[in-house]
Amino acid sequence: MQKGELVMSSDLNIQEKKAIIVKHGAVKEKLLNILLDIQFSSEKGYIDKETAALVADELGMTETRVFEVISYYAMLKDKPQAKYVLKICNSSPCYVTESDKLVALLEKELHVTANQATADGLFAFNCIPCPGACHMGPIIKIKDKVFGNMDEQKVLQLLHDLREGRISL
Ligand code: FES
Questions:
Q1: Helix 31-41 to helix 14-23 angle, to the nearest 10 degrees?
Q2: For ligand 1, which residues put their CB under 6 angstroms from it?
Q3: Total-model pTM
């Protein structure tokens, strides 16, 4: 593990997904918040069929309705996204360390906006709520790793290293 990296938990299990549903009151009215929370907490970065079925079941609604909501909101995905999805924390402690500058840099460097994959399918980025590494802000999380104390130079180096396959995730 390199300095500045922190290993976070891997993809969500059923109990963790259920905990998110309960956190939002397990009510249909919170479906969008639940789906966003699960998607952005997940290593996969999308809502798979199994998860949609679980959410539908827990909220007492049909899977079809859950997928209607997923397809209505561009932020929600029902398919695997880019190979590397860079998740930038935009909660207050990271925001004050200028995480917005990292977002602007990624837009410029990758020629995409949030939640869009690059033409080569290698990168996408989006903003996430605090994953609990505030002491390292601003941070970028990719799969189960957190890269902390990021600045523009480090982001460029990170993109370069990922392209070259120098970072194992
Ligand atoms: S506020 Fe960004 S990791 Fe906690």
A1: 140
A2: 89, 91, 93-94, 130-134, 137, 139
A3: 0.62
